[in-house]
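S.,

Sequence below, as promised.
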Amino acid sequence: MSAASDSTTVPPPTIASRTAPTSTSPAASIDAAQILAWGRRVLSLEADALRTSETALDDTFVQAVTLLAACRGRVIVAGVGKSGLVGRKMAATFTSTGTPAMFLHPVESVHGDLGIVGPDDVAILISKSGESEELLGLIEALARLGVHMIAMTAVPGSRLARHADVTLDLLVKEEACPHDLAPTTSTTVTLALGDALAVALLQHKGFRAEDFARFHPGGALGRRLLTRVSDVMETGNLPVLDRHATMREAVVLLAGRRGLAVVVEQERVCGVVTAGDLTRLLERQEPREPQADVLALPVTSVMTATPRLAMDHELGSAVVHRMETYGIMAMPVIDAAERLVGVVHLHDLMRAGAA
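The prediction came back faster than expected:
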């Protein structure tokens, strides 16, 4: 009889039978409190290491940023293993914030990739021990090319540190790994220190959000950075009143979609009346006071004389932040000459991806 027709053949287990935990499975003996304790220990050790690095930041950090700012070529970042992975991220951060950078693998560098390095470059070399043979082999080649070097290491007396122009001490004495072997705390501190270099450098260079947008044109981030108020604002049939208007005229405009009336004199905004202003006015009214008296009030007695305004060239994300901070739904827009040119609504900015 063939195997296919054997009535004793056991059917394959169902998904449920394969995945259902048994009393002898590892999951059944998990100690949740112990796992949480392990996780918290790692986070605590790494947070303490970051605080130590922050406190110890000194003139060597200033020297490193100064060296990077004076770089006329590219920033070359090199490291082996986990340090190399951190180095790749570091190079990407420098590049996206206006400082051209490349990651160079130390082994590949001595097999031809050294051709990307020039004398105007600055190298950042990462090694916790400062004694990585692959990295030390690269140092001699960089020195021959006249490349300035910044070392990131936890051993200031290492060979890497001795050959570098500037040494940034990681100050890591213990890894979060219970065996003090797996790079954990050291890579966290290295990554954070790399971010500190990049951010300090972009601020030193005066790198703006608009510059950042040029390097991130795609996706939601690109839309948020590239959307300007002028792209979204309404320019036709603006809710405008002159200084001699009454609240009766303002109420008509407040009933519209924008929910505000802009008081203008010689094309300049001199005040704004909102639905909130109208509500507060009515709440202050005495019960027996004629409603007509409220509507006859001049808008200048109710308006906010120093309203928050948006500039037509501003990034939409900046205006969204102000609107959300101060609870504003619509805002007058002015140009460089401070003339009213439009009104922008929070909903329109959010639909355009500026939030």
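The first strand starts at residue 75 and ends at 79.

Coffee later?
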